[in-house]
Amino acid sequence: MKLFIDTANLDDIRDIAGWGILDGCTTNPSLAAREGRDFAELIAEICDVVDGPVSAEVVADNAEGMLAEARLLAQIHDNVVVKVPIGVEGLKATRVLSDEGIRTNVTLIFSVTQAFMAAKAGATYVSPFVGRVDDIGGSGIGLVADIVEVFDTYAFDTEVLAASIRHIQHMVEALRVGSHVATIPPGIFRKMLVHPQTASGMAGFMADWAKVEGGGNVVEVVQRFLDARKG
Fold this sequence. Notes:
By secondary structure, the protein is α/β, with parallel strands linked by helices. The protein folds into 2 domains: about 1-190, Alpha-Beta Barrel (TIM Barrel); about 195-230, no CATH class. Helices cover about 55% and strands about 15% of the residues. It has helices at about 10-15, 30-35, 40-50, 65-75, 90-100, 110-120, 130-135, 140-155, 170-175, 185-190, 195-210, 220-230, and strands spanning about 1-5, 25, 55, 80-85, 105-110, 125-130, 160, 180-185. An 8-stranded parallel beta barrel has the order 1-2-3-4-5-6-7-8, surrounded by 5 helices. Strand 7, helix 9 and strand 8 (about 180-185) form a beta-alpha-beta unit. It is elongated, with a radius of gyration of 22 Å.
């Protein structure tokens, strides 16, 4: 699974990009608004940090306007993927952008048929909103699983990008059903590495290390050994 970060905050993006496991980034108007920055400059800076797809969303409500915005967004950086809302106008725009070689992330997916139509239009990614489907009594992960199955059946190149990830179990289930991508808030990224048994295990190891003969900083211990061997 590819891991994207779902934020427009550069501090969080730089931090998690430094872990060596980040494949991309998704933004939306709400996330961008929180940063209080010029939008184009912000997207360009994110693209300089993230070595992978960076979703930047159009805000026009008709295909002509979406296309005008998308063509400009795509010129900001080679990493930009244009985020387009599902719907008739979004579908029209996606078809044209696909034909022009501009990658798209069709967003606000809440049904298999929406995802299917987006894939038919040539979308690079479709984004089912896991948490929001759960909010209305559905199964967000069930939706992801159904879309993955349909895309496999019809051999679509479109990738399923699980969005609206709310907690660790969403991630576990998205992995189990074979979502191609998940876009994850920074807080969930950090929680994915945490377990109380890991913390207690490390505490025990460190307590025992203090009892090791010649213990201390590992670099110092090994360097002393290597220097003595040379001598």
